[in-house]
Amino acid sequence: MERRDFLKLATVSGIAFASGCTKALRPGAPEARASAPKRDFFFLQLSDTHVGYEGAANPDAANTLPRAVEIIRASKVRPDFVVFTGDLTQSTEDDADRRARMKRFKEIVAPIDVPMHFIPGEHDASSDAGAAFREMFGETHWTFEHEGLHFIGLDNVSQPNATLGEAQIGWLDARVAALPKDAPLVVFAHRPLFDLAPQWDWWTKDGARALEILQRHDPVTVFYGHIHQEHHFTTARITHHASRSLVFPLPAPMSLPKKAPLLWDEGAADHGLGYREVFPLLSMREKNIVVPK
Predict the structure, then answer these.
(1) Residue range 34-83, pLDDT digits in tens
(2) Exposure class string for 96-133: b at 16+ Cβ within 10 A, else e
(3) Which of 121, 140, 187, 237 gives 20 to 30 Å between its CA and that of 82?
(4) What sign does the dihedral 270-272-274-279 (CA atoms) show?
(5) Which CATH superfamily is domain 3-27+41-281 in?
(6) Is it the case that residue 21 has pLDDT exceeding 70?
(7) What element of type H or E holds 239?
(8) For the chain, which residues make up each domain, given as ranges?
(9) Which residues does residue 14 pair with via DSSP β-bridges, in sequence order?
(10) Which residues partner with 197 through β-bridges?
């Protein structure tokens, strides 16, 4: 892995490493978990691309996602998969426009040419309860296994009032209960599952019920979007990481009287877009992954 290519990827997305090379996956653990990754790998998280957005907060919005795709394709380093955590498109009340924007999104990201997984944001799904999203991308919540690790995608935008809903909570409970107690879980959601800023709609009304189910396992890592900025939080044994947006940044939670996109800074190198953090996932090496020289 060349440092130059790795850092290029880090400018456009969240990078998470899964490593089974260490003996223990948490301090004091006497043995490696049976469910440790079969091999080291990494994946990318991209979020809040808002295809179809037009506005002063990003006068170059039509090119932001295509440029990110170009960087990913040009890198010699290939992720095992990419996860998009919602608000793929800008909201519209016109059903035809909604589907056209989703089709355009799919055309833009297709050249990434690795497995991709999608969950909706409220811009994609709140107007029609996720109907167009399911037509274009499949079910709004899902699970899959990769290299022995368990990944879960949740939909906390299709139901009214920012909820997961009884049916999905029951589904999550059953899926989690079927896994070994020490199975590491990686969860994706659009909204934060904890109460980050309910006044700004940065929460999930019944998210605490999902966290109660998830925290039966250890470790659990949640990646989310929605807030258009980097943010890290811990609830019980669960760590939560928010991704920057690929359309415009938003202010820190409750830092201003009113939530609104930050002004476009023509002189900024990254305009507050992209995601520059690297997360060690399931590995107790150093807290920060050392990027190869």
Answers:
(1) 455 667 888 999 999 999 999 999 999 999 999 999 988 888 888 899 99
(2) eebbbbbebbeebbeebeeebbbbbbbbbbbbbebebb
(3) 237
(4) positive
(5) Metallo-dependent phosphatases (3.60.21.10)
(6) no
(7) strand 238-242
(8) 3-27+41-281
(9) 45
(10) 202
